From TrEMBL:
Pfam families: SSB. GO terms for molecular function: DNA binding. Keywords: DNA-binding. InterPro entries: NA-bd_OB-fold, Primosome_PriB/ssb, ssDNA-bd. It comes from Deinococcus multiflagellatus. This is Single-stranded DNA-binding protein. The keyword DNA-binding applies. Gene3D superfamilies: Nucleic acid-binding proteins. SUPFAM superfamilies: Nucleic acid-binding proteins (SSF50249).
Length: 229
């Protein structure tokens, strides 16, 4: 059985939304933000902001909406990564989105300040931790850069769901320098446990000038090869 756990502590960026689908399913959506400590290209520690979209379905969505959390509230958000694919409206090609599916959302007392920004709120600290286990869906790609070794890969994870079929997901991995070394040279099918932070990154759309898209990946901090997989 695969592992798919996410633990976040962040500030609610803006008012959450509750929508109801055509089939009658309630959907609660919100964005959380915080900061995490990273090592930059010069080997110096610095704080880097993160923003992540999260959602809940059904009864939990309705419960969370009734709590009416205010922007700037520090929240504890355990859950898992959720992968969804769709057909792009502009050309019918396949696209995908990765969000955090919430198991719960609770106010929490934190030692960090909440900063009010032009586009919402951000916690000046927080927690952004994820653990995934599964198998690589393609060979890991190694690249030696001016900032050190970079390895990219994609892990396939099957997440169990109570009373329903397990849900497959495909999550991008990116490892730098020492964290990249265990990934280098791994082939398709290799079994892994990876731990790190969930990161969003903006990039230019190669098909449409002036448009940007968002990539979500796991910034790998530790990777272990599963024996016999």
């Amino acid at each position: 059985m695969n592992t798919n756990h996410v633990s976040l502590i962040g500030a609610l960026v803006r008012p959450p939304q509750l929508q109801v689908t055509a089939t009658g399913t309630s959907v609660f959506e919100c964005t959380l933000s915080g900061e995490r400590q990273v090592t930059d290209e010069q080997g110096q520690l610095r704080m880097k902001p993160w923003y992540l979209r999260a959602f809940a379905l059904g009864r939990l969505a309705e419960v969370l909406a009734k709590r009416r959390y205010q922007p700037g509230t520090a929240l504890y958000a355990p859950g898992c990564l959720d992968y969804s694919s769709f057909d792009k409206a502009e050309d019918g090609s396949k696209g995908s989105t990765t969000r955090v599916k919430l198991d719960q959302l609770e106010p929490i007392q934190v030692p960090w300040e909440v900063e009010a920004l032009e586009n919402g709120f951000r916690l000046k600290g927080g927690v952004n931790e994820a653990e995934l286990s599964g198998n690589l869906t393609r060979d890991a790609v190694r690249r030696d850069t001016a900032n050190g070794l970079l390895v990219r890969a994609t892990i396939g994870v099957t997440t169990p769901r109570i009373g329903r079929e397990s849900r497959p997901g495909y999550f991008d991995l990116k490892g730098w320098r020492d964290a990249a070394a265990p990934l280098a040279g791994l082939g398709k099918g290799a079994g892994l446990i990876v731990r790190g932070a969930v990161v969003t990154e903006q990039y230019a759309d190669s098909q449409e000038a002036g448009r940007s898209r968002t990539a979500v990946y796991l910034d790998v901090q530790r990777a272990l090869l599963l024996a016999g997989r």
